[in-house]
């Protein structure tokens, strides 16, 4: 694969402080990260350290306090479909069918550029990508949690985002379903070559999926503690990988970071 | 819009064990007959029995020679025509109670329709901001308790004309619970849905129709349901102003000419109509918001 231009997504000395009345919480501090086009980055860190906050900053759902965020050289300061988000709890609209949930996104994003028929094909293509065509007419309440996450991914992909942001998308799923969906995400990444940023608290997931693992220190005022390159060639196979020396080494490095150097201490607020 | 087929599995609570047929040999049609019989016995019979007992007590209580109110048999004797033929027309002022109810319903449709549109829009705006909510909510909570009759003089003073005043009385009586409930529903829209809307860059109008209305539908419809009840309650007050042929004015007129039995029949018409309106809005609400609860 040819190397894309660097500084595709540039996170430049970002900090985030929440002010709630007189209560001021500095959540993130001095975050610097540059992500290449087509790269898969995992962000890992203990619960409450500010991973979702960082993702929301990239999505534009939250404003940065200081610093700047640039995608393709252009400043990010509002949410938009070119930075689609797969939310932790799927957040599908329960009154719409699976098809109509994806359609909501497609109609909005491609209203001027695709005809009706093309939009329909595009919706079906994205549902097919996550193998959810069979449930197109079901409502979110009628399908399993894993299926809902698939639809959430299809909805995000259907926006043809420059960067796909995933906030612990499989956190609430059982191990088998999670493995299936990880394979699906790897497959999609291989086929479409999207830039993906995925938050996780699962070390295996991070190592399996990512080109780089961004490890965050504990809050308050969390920052990036270490960035680990995972140079395992793709396609990656979870079974073959289990004993792969690079995999074992990467896994150990992350575990050491999380449990030796930045042990999770229950915040004594 | 595609038509959605709901495949809800029936709730087990619909088949309480008490309805299980004790005879294992019973044929299918026999079971069906027994079930509908059980339904009649459990749901239709009790209100009928209570009604009969109440009528009997009423009959006995007002049978004396100087009783203030007519007995049920007297109502029947003097006003049975009103009950039996709701749609007679003997003259422009002498028409069946069915026609009168329809006239009143038209008036309520204007007042309530306006209240529904204005209430939902105002609720949507106010619910968007916690500050506005804090500012407006106590005021609405006070205004909501003002009875319809109390709005009459204010309404007349403001409009100087009886027709818009009557509709305004209905409007102003019905609007508060619609605003309050819509605003509460908008406040309760999950942040997730707002995030989805933000990522998709939905504009205000798209957000209103695609996120706000469906998400807040259960709240909005419970407001509309209270509102339709209140606007029907206001009909007598409103028609005291307008005169004419409405059911509300009929009561006012019958009172002025001491036709007590007619008033009693009209009360029954009003009650049944109000009940139907309430159920109708409730039913529309449950159809519209069936997806939101899951
Ligand atoms: N809107 C907010 N206002 C105040 N504090 C917040 C807000 N959002 C998040 N925080 C705080 O920021 C910290 C990080 O939260 P979050 O990013 O959700 O962590 P993570 O996703 O890593 O578990 C938490 O301590 C949380 O209480
Ligand atoms: Mg989080």
From TrEMBL, chain B:
Keyword terms, alphabetized: Cell inner membrane, Cell membrane, Ion transport, Membrane, Transmembrane, Transmembrane helix, Transport
Entry superkingdom: Bacteria
Presence of keyword Cell inner membrane: yes
Chief localisation class: membrane
Domain ABC transmembrane type-1: 101-281
Transmembrane segments: 37-61, 108-127, 139-160, 166-186, 207-226, 232-252, 264-284
InterPro entries: MetI-like, MetI-like_sf, NtrB
Membrane topology summary: Multi-pass membrane protein
Places the protein is found: Cell inner membrane; Cell membrane
NCBIfam families in UniProt: ntrB
Record family assignment: Belongs to the binding-protein-dependent transport system permease family.
PANTHER family named among the record's database cross-references: ALKANE SULFONATE ABC TRANSPORTER-RELATED, MEMBRANE SUBUNIT (PTHR30151), NITRATE IMPORT PERMEASE PROTEIN NRTB (PTHR30151:SF7)
Annotated protein name in UniProt: Nitrate ABC transporter, permease protein
The organism's taxonomic lineage, starting at the top: Bacteria, Pseudomonadati, Pseudomonadota, Alphaproteobacteria, Rhodobacterales
